[in-house]
Amino acid sequence: MVRESEIRRNEVAVIPPEPSDAGLIFIGRIRTPWTSRLMAPRQGRPDGPVCRIEIFEPWQAALDGIERFERLEVLYWLHLSRRDLVRQSPGDNGTTYGTFALRSPVRPNPIGTSIAMLVALEGSTLLVRGLDCLDGTPLLDLKPDRTLFKPIAPEQPGDRQTQA
Amino acid sequence: MVRESEIRRNEVAVIPPEPSDAGLIFIGRIRTPWTSRLMAPRQGRPDGPVCRIEIFEPWQAALDGIERFERLEVLYWLHLSRRDLVRQSPGDNGTTYGTFALRSPVRPNPIGTSIAMLVALEGSTLLVRGLDCLDGTPLLDLKPDRTLFKPIAPEQPGDRQTQA
Predict the structure, then answer these.
(1) Which of A78, A127, B146, B164 would you call most buried, defined as having the most Cβ atoms within 10 angstroms of its Cβ?
(2) Would A138 be classed as within a structural domain?
(3) Alpha-carbon Rg of chain B, whole angstroms?
């Protein structure tokens, strides 16, 4: 079963520093069918339910042109997640893994990333498939999927830089 | 040419809210060959130079098992980027695009994401290829590439949920 917020057998917590190195702005809110961690999918699926991404002002003008991309990278804040575990037991069976070897929502900076299929843009709301987060999750960013985006800026010296 | 921090013709800036909705912890630092925006690649390449990702305490224990993944998702803080543009002109030619239709570092929450090829793990330092960020960029998170990671937690009701 997916965690509410308990620490499980063999998991390792640390005392994290104050989260004051940089500050975030919630730029929107995500509406999904899932109101409990115990129901949400472990991973989004491209044929999953249509979810809504509502964009707040003053950011709505930043949506212009987004409909050209069939897949979007969505970054959001996992607002219910604890941040202090360095080893976790996803199976709740005593076997643990380092946090950076997992895609668990429990992380020092609980930022979730998904690839969403864009279904429609209705005013300042995006309809998408492929998410797995809870209803009400705060939005941090939207970007074109990296595999679809070609840089518009002129070429830079680093573009061709390789190394054996 | 890539922007230092000027506003260009036809670009649109807004007055952003205070960035106080949530706080970040810098968990490491990225070492790359690029010390200027005018030299860095526009996008990382899988055969690019080897870069170093140094992990700070108390997060080093969270690396355990990461070497099983040949590709990692890297999240980092674009610490030199302005955050107030909703329309940008990457070509510096007067043509503008909405920020969410670009992968520019200039965003309300300047979080960069890359897929890095793991070359080696040396103590608490990862050697990777595929990055395009500046030397000294603060690290926010490391996750297995989503296409390589299979959830370990038991199945959830939402896993099979689809919708026409």
Answers:
(1) A78
(2) yes
(3) 18
The H-or-E segment that residue B98 falls in is strand B97-98
CATH of residue A51's domain is 2.40.30.70
Contact present, B19 and A23 (Cβ < 8 Å): yes
The verdict on residue A86 lying in a domain is no
Do residues A100 and B63 make contact, with C-beta atoms less than 8 angstroms apart?
A: yes
Q: State the ipTM, two decimals.
A: 0.96
Check: CB of residue B77 under 8 Å from CB of residue B138.
yes
Helical (H) or strand (E) element with B111: strand B111-122
SS3 B122: strand
pTM of the model: 0.97
Q: How far is A148 from chain B (nearest CA, A)?
A: 11
In a domain, B100, yes or no: no
Distance of CA B103 to the CA centre of its chain: 10
B129 phi, psi to nearest 5 deg = -120, 160
Q: How many cross-chain Cβ pairs, A to B, lie less than 8 Å apart?
A: 282
Residues of B within 8 A of A63 (CB-CB) are 98, 100-101
> Coil, strand or helix: which one is B61?
helix
Cα–chain center distance at A110: 8
- The sign of the dihedral angle between the CA atoms of A139, B108, A104, A9 is negative
Do A58 and B15 count as a contact with CB atoms less than 8 A apart? yes
Range of the domain at B119: 23-77+105-147
CB-closest option in B41, B152, B155 to A161: B41
**What's chain A's Rg over C-alpha atoms?**
18
- In a domain, residue B131? The reply is yes
pLDDT tens-digit readout, B77-125 = 999 999 999 999 999 999 999 999 999 999 999 999 999 999 999 999 9
Contacts of B16 (CB under 8 A, 6+ apart): A25, A58, B83, B84, B108
